[in-house]
Amino acid sequence: MKLLREILGYVLGGVLFVGLMPAVMWLATGMPALEHIGALRACITGVLMIGGLSLSVWTIVYMKRQGKGNPMDAFGHEVAPRTQHLMVAGPYRINRNPMLTGTLTYLAGAAVWLWSWQAVAVWVAFFGIMFVQVLSEERRLRRDFGAEYEEYCRHSRRF
């Protein structure tokens, strides 16, 4: 059962963040033809999307290996087994939310690709929702890890 919940967490995350959000951006933009966008924009898009996805995957792997858990915790509800250890090294040296930073970077790449204010508006709305999620998660981390988490917060940025 634990393995099934874990797999479900990864699948839901991948579908939502890698597939559904760019699709929502594309729909909000009016479903433009995905034609050649020019070399400069293509390079910027590629760097943002590949870089963001790489940071997110690195974080997931690190979380699984070092934290002994899974990132899927939605507004205080455990979707898959939570991490058992506070992580402050690896991608967590960059900031306290490297997976979300990677996802936001990936989606910024999608917005550059689509090049529309509607795609940016979807990105901003997604950021707002995720910011509320981060605040919820921070409350849980304070409960779970207490002074250790407070110390980490003093020496790291949220994003």
How many separate domains?
1
Distance, first to last CA: 33 Å
Q: Which structural class should the secondary elements be placed in?
A: mainly alpha
| Beta-strand share of residues | under 5%
Rough outline: elongated
User: What's the tally of helices?
Assistant: 4
Helix content: 55-70%
Low-confidence stretches: none
Order of helices and strands: HHEEHH
How would you characterize the largest beta sheet? 2 strands, antiparallel
Side by side, the strands of the main sheet go 1-2
Count the E strands. 2
Please, what is the average pLDDT? Answer: 89
What does this 3D model show about the protein?
With 159 residues, the protein is mostly helical. It has one domain (2-154). It has 4 helices and 2 strands; from the N terminus they run H-H-E-E-H-H. It has helices at residues 2-28, 39-66, 98-114, 117-154, and strands spanning 73-74, 77-78. A hairpin with a 2-residue loop joins strand 1 and strand 2 (77-78). The termini are far apart.
SSE topology:
Blueprint: H1 2-28, H2 39-66, E1 73-74, E2 77-78, H3 98-114, H4 117-154
Antiparallel strand pairs: 1-2
Helix pairs in contact: 1-3, 1-4, 2-3, 3-4
Give a quick rundown of the structure.
The protein is mainly α and 159 residues long.
Features of the shown structure:
159 residues, mainly alpha, two-stranded antiparallel sheet, 2 strands
